[in-house]
Design goal:
The protein is mainly α. It is built from four helices and no strands. This is Multisubunit Na+/H+ antiporter, MnhF subunit.
Length: about 90
């Protein structure tokens, strides 16, 4: 059972690395921001899965906070970049 869970976590981490590679190849700032927002969401989902596996709800609360608030910074940065391009 543990080997299956470890395999699932490895697959989740591998899926998290795909947007990082896409951000590295792209020169467009919007593509990089989308890729990093995707990494943020996937990291919070991994935190939630680990918290359920460990039966530690304190880690789960941190994962939920990261999931709900983590992309707010990216939205603010996207708005600032959009306003700077208009100037």
């Amino acid at each position: 059972m543990n080997s299956i869970l470890n395999f699932i976590l490895i697959l989740m981490i591998t899926a998290m690395l795909i947007p990082i590679y896409a951000a590295y190849k792209s020169n467009d700032i919007w593509q990089k921001m989308l890729a990093l927002a995707s990494v943020s969401s996937k990291a919070s989902i991994i935190i939630l899965v680990v918290s359920v596996l460990r039966d530690d709800w304190m880690i789960g609360v941190v994962g939920a906070i990261v999931l709900s608030v983590g992309n707010a910074g990216f939205m603010l940065l996207a708005h600032l970049l959009n306003q700077m391009e208009k100037i």
